[in-house]
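Async update (no meeting this week)

Hi team, since we skipped the sync, here's where things stand on the single-chain job. The sequence we agreed to prioritize is pasted below, unchanged from the tracker. I ran it this morning and attached the output directly underneath so nobody has to dig for it. Comments welcome in thread, and please keep replies under the output.
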Amino acid sequence: MINRTERDSLGTLQVPAGAYYGINTTRALTNFPITGYKISDVADKLVVSLVMVKKAAAMANRETGKLKDSPVPVWESIIAACDELISGAYHEQFCTDPIQGGAGTSLNMNANEVIANIALEHINGCKKGDYHVIDPNNHVNMSQSTNDVLPTASHIAIRLMLDDLLETMKELYTSFDNKAKEFDKYVKIGRTHLQDAVPIRLGQEFDAYARVLKRDIDRIEKTGHYLYEVNMGATAVGTALNTNPEYVESVMKHLKAVTSEYAGRDFPLRRCESLVDGTQNTDCYTEVSATLKICMMNMSKIASDLRLMVSGPGCGLGEITLEERQAGSSIMPDKVNPVIPEVVNQVAFQVIGNDHTICLASEAGQFELNVMQPVLVFNLIESINMMDNVFKVFGKLCVDKIRITSANEERMSNNLNRSASLAAALIPAIGYAASGEIAKKARTERKSILEVCLEDTDLVAKLGEEKIKDLLDPDQMTRWGEKLKH
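Output:
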């Protein structure tokens, strides 16, 4: 392998000649072989966000007269390099591990080196490593610190990822809402404690699923509000050392413009009221993570409900039919499992675990900086990625494909007719005790509630056959709440 020699304060090191990264990144690759991933594998939007921060800083430094294009086009070349990276080129050069010591310094240095070396190729006669022309620290990192660059880029990346997640969640909401309407005609036995309860319409159950997801959408949208507050200009501890007020104002102006252009909408970034607060505290991440955890707890409950509804198909509840996605056993022929709801459960467990890691990392910050931000951001990004992916398959490969077959209808009808819980509808007419006796007789004699009631001549004489049938109409039992005024 052909190498080039680079130098830093610790000495010299060999760097692959074709690499756009440099000595700091090379040291990080040796120091942090932790997850087996590189940052561009798991957080492409974080790469883009880092570069947008660098572009805005370069624009502000030029505007305030600190970054000049004489005798070579330094500013112009840095901006050109940033534009290439924002468009998707060279992302594989962002190769540090997502979990790293140093509060993300390695990742920031990785960005500085890649941008500098791409920029050098825009200048005639320059090659990678010619840092006397464009230096990763002196030019690309001018007026910045890892401690304002990484939090700002992380806020932007997570907010952009939440936009994508929310769109997917809205599609999943539509899937549940459509099924709620489609299934509203099917009456089934309700269940509490996994025991028979009074009737409910299948559409009512799916409407409840849609509604809880809508609340999750609302929660996530609201918690993302604080991600628009960034500490750009704070530098090391929030005191804005090595900057000036003109730069701090300018970099926010340019960063808002750059991110809005990339997002295709107004991206309302604003500077933290206190840059010290914005540098040391990470509560906006824990707030977002908490809403993701709540969402996945809700979705896991729904996935478990679907697994129970589809159980069988011969010896379980068998109330719904899911699309068959793959063979379910290497030993039992023709066995098919509810694999999509199962993977939703597993993603929920991962997101809940990630939230715990995020809480621990957030709490572990000391004084002016949270040095645990790499693991915090990695876990939050992983949660958002996994949720976006699993919701897409949950909607398209599961919820949209749920069917009610004649066998499902028959199973729901049989369960309704066998359930003694229907006796609850008699309570307003004959009281709790008498209703209980009818339910007990129906259960012990294995008859329906209606059969027992119609065999009771005294009850028929008292209420009349039509009244009894009306009281015990399962569909009507599900509609009492519709009489309520909202």
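Quick observations from my side:
The beta strands are 3-8, 11-16, 187-192, 195-201, 229-230, 270-271.
The radius of gyration is 31 Å.
Reply here if anything looks off.
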